[in-house]
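Hey L., structure's done. Input below.
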Amino acid sequence: MITLIGVPFDFAGMTYYSTSKDIEIGSKVVCTTPHGTFIGTVAKIRKPSEEELEKTDFDTIFPSIDRIANFQDLAFDREAKVKEAEITRVTQQESDELKLNMNILNTYLDLSSDKALITFTSDNRVDFRELVKILIGMFHLRIELRQIGPRDQAKLIGGIGACGLPICCSTFLNSFDGISIAMAKNP
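Output:
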């Protein structure tokens, strides 16, 4: 029996994967994303609808998980957390020295290759080619810098909305709809 599991990633939002394995909420799974292979935590479980199952591109819409995280994956994840914090700290320090006006948020180490995905925010476009050269020389990893918007940053950091409750994007919203000029003009 196929089930769909929702695995949230800070850099990609909630992604649904298919599996026939018995998985519970909170289980660690290894998933391939457009940015690499990472360990995620199952946040939602649901059954696919009949319409979803009948789609010819079901496997494309809901790719299967690579595997349930094993002992080696969990050990890599623990070690990676320490290294990710160090890469984040050094990247912020180097970007400050280069006066790039970047706020480095997080680093994610790819499970299947020597690659680091670094997310950051900035008010304008940033030419970070020199920073990438410095980081490659220091860490001997392939570096992918990804700029995220203010709504994604709010989702990561969290906060209290105008209503007095935790902001929606950090509690239950999985993706953001586009904002038109008309919506921005009319509060």
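Residues 162 and 168 are 11 Å apart (CA to CA). The mean pLDDT is 86.

-- N.
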